[in-house]
Design goal:
Layout: H1 2-21, H2 25-37, H3 41-65, H4 71-92, H5 97-116, H6 129-146, H7 151-160, H8 166-188, H9 197-220, H10 223-246
Helix pairs in contact: 1-2, 1-3, 1-9, 2-3, 3-8, 3-9, 4-6, 4-8, 5-10, 6-8, 7-8
Membrane topology: Multi-pass membrane protein
Protein name: Probable membrane transporter protein
Keywords: Cell membrane, Membrane, Transmembrane, Transmembrane helix
Amino acid sequence: MTALILALVAGAVVGLALGGLGGGGSVLAVPALTYLIGMPPADAITASLIIVTLTSITALTGHARDGNVVWRTGLLFAAAGIVPAMLAGTAAGHLPQAGLTIAFAVVAGVAALRMLRPAPAPAAGKVRPAKAGAAGAGLGAVTGLLGVGGGFLAVPALTRVLNLPMRRAIGTSLLVITINSIAALGARAGTGVHLDWAVIAPFTAAAILGAWDGKRYAQRLSGNTLQRVFAYALLAVAAFMLADAFI
């Protein structure tokens, strides 16, 4: 019963992050599954990809109805990350779990600090395809290696590299998350991880419901406020995971 309650609460928080911020779901889901539910890291990573994929699809439909998804940009950005996501997902099974945990925390912390920096002035019409492709490929590799959907990196990449407004970056990132997560799941299929559906199912259900609430909150807050909330949440998660790894 305790595991069920924790799964429902954690799922609701993950859904709020995905629906309202366009990312941060898996960077919160993996620690929740590991530290609250007690899943081994490898199982938690795969479970988080399932949860985040299904929740992202739900959140994506709402943002798409509001016209906040730039489909062509999102598909091109995600396409660059499919192969890296699959290759990194395969490699992740051969790496030590402690190393993956530390890498996870470092990537989350760096992304948060970048988001807290003042955003450069938009440079419309100066998007460089090579730079966008490199950002998409790097995002896919992180998704596959660390089991994250990549929204906490996709949102700053879409705003800073592709110059999308914050709300459109949030909606478009959900498309990128969905594609990258499916690719990473494909690479992890048959790797022998144990999936506890008694936890995954209620966690996913709560996350889907939370995503709808998150979308409503996103409509009431400014883009800068959303970005700062997102960044501080990431910093807190990164600090906790680093402390747990070294203490």
